[in-house]
Specification:
Layout: H1 27-34, H2 44-51, H3 59-120, E1 155-158, E2 163-166, E3 174-179, E4 183-188, E5 196-202, E6 206-209, E7 215-223, E8 226-227, E9 231-236, E10 244-247, E11 253-254, E12 260-264, E13 269-277, E14 286-290, E15 294-296, E16 303-313, E17 318-321, E18 325-329
Parallel strand pairs: 2-9, 11-18
Antiparallel strand pairs: 1-3, 3-6, 4-5, 4-7, 7-8, 7-9, 10-12, 12-15, 13-14, 13-16, 16-17, 16-18
Length: 330
């Protein structure tokens, strides 16, 4: 996180709105240097030029000395730069050699890994030991390779064309069988098989359809030999559970605390419940549950109510209710 710089005494003084006169700390020394009566025979340089000290000497001598100095500088420059170049070349050659060796080392390491993997790789299991995975109840439509299909001609066995069964979740799935081997079993609500409600990859010669919904269905099997004829079957509505109310009777009275509601139940019912409502059944006013054939009412205020008994059907997998009756709670 960025923080504002702390305020330190004196940092703002250099940016004052009033400009103070600037003074050069070397002014006094310069004054002393250049106020020494220049031109009045007290300055050494001026004296040299005034007296012509350099005029009478040969300029060729100075040119020769300057040339010798330049030659020496050039020789020293080439000596030092040549040594640096040799060091650089040695370093470059060494780096290139190391880089050339690195791929070889990596290749050797990869080769060792591959050899280790080959040694540790288990042998493939015989085909006889590989168990076939059963297909799910319903899968998205998929196109398998032709080699995965059975090769024998498919003939449907059961159910027979036009068969009917009742919807019953307490029973096992509907069984379908054929001859000819693996392939696809296709179900549709249309005799032309379009659209397909289900297209399931099957292994072997049978398939278990768990609780098809009520209505008329059409089915066939496909494999490498082709498609079978289309058969139909019908699933009837689940048989309703029979529940008969014993007391109270329609229009009767019932104590709000301690009153008893009883009925005659049926087989394959998981549980019962009694509901009271003075409005709709989406949210009953009072509800009492029972695993038997009676329930005792508690805490229901006096008044007029509609009452019904519900039974959870193991056949239909849902709640089924008696016809509501009017009762008076005392």
């Amino acid at each position: 996180m960025n923080e504002a710089p702390s305020q330190q005494t004196g940092l703002g003084d250099s940016f004052s709105s009033q400009q103070s006169p600037q003074t050069n700390p070397f002014t006094a020394d310069l004054k002393g240097e250049f106020n020494s009566n220049f031109g009045t025979n007290t300055n050494a340089v001026s004296q040299i030029f005034k007296e012509g000290g350099f005029v009478g000497q040969s300029r060729a001598k100075y040119f020769a000395i300057g040339g010798v100095v330049l030659v020496l500088v050039a020789v020293l420059f080439f000596v030092f730069t040549g040594e640096d170049s040799e060091d650089s070349d040695d370093t470059t050659e060494q780096t290139a050699s190391e880089q050339a060796d690195e791929p070889k080392e990596e290749a050797d390491a990869e080769s060792e890994k591959e050899e280790t993997a080959k040694v540790q790789e288990p042998a493939a299991a015989p085909k006889e030991q590989v168990a076939a995975t059963p297909a799910p109840a319903a899968v998205p439509t998929a196109r398998a390779s032709a080699s995965s299909f059975g090769s024998g001609k498919v003939t449907l066995v059961e159910p027979a064309n036009g068969s009917s069964i009742a919807y019953d979740e307490s029973q096992g799935p509907a069984q379908f069988s054929w001859t000819g081997g693996s392939g696809y079993i296709v179900f549709s609500r249309n005799p032309k098989m379009k659209p397909a409600e289900m297209r399931v990859r099957v292994n072997g010669n049978s398939y278990a359809f768990h609780h098809p919904w009520p209505g008329t269905w059409y089915w066939r099997v496909e494999n490498r030999s082709g498609k079978t004829d289309v058969r139909s079957f019908t699933v009837g509505s689940p048989q309703r559970r029979t529940v008969s109310l014993s007391q109270p009777t329609a229009g009767g009275a019932l104590a709000g605390n301690g009153g008893t509601v009883s009925w005659q139940g049926d087989a394959r019912v998981a549980s019962y419940r009694v509901e009271f409502s003075n409005g709709g059944w989406a949210n009953p006013t009072h509800r009492f549950a029972s695993s038997g054939n009676s329930v005792q009412v508690q805490g229901v205020p006096p008044g007029q109510y509609q009452m019904r008994v519900g039974a959870f059907s193991e056949v239909a997998g849902r709640w089924e209710y008696t016809t509501p009756i009017s009762v008076t709670i005392q």
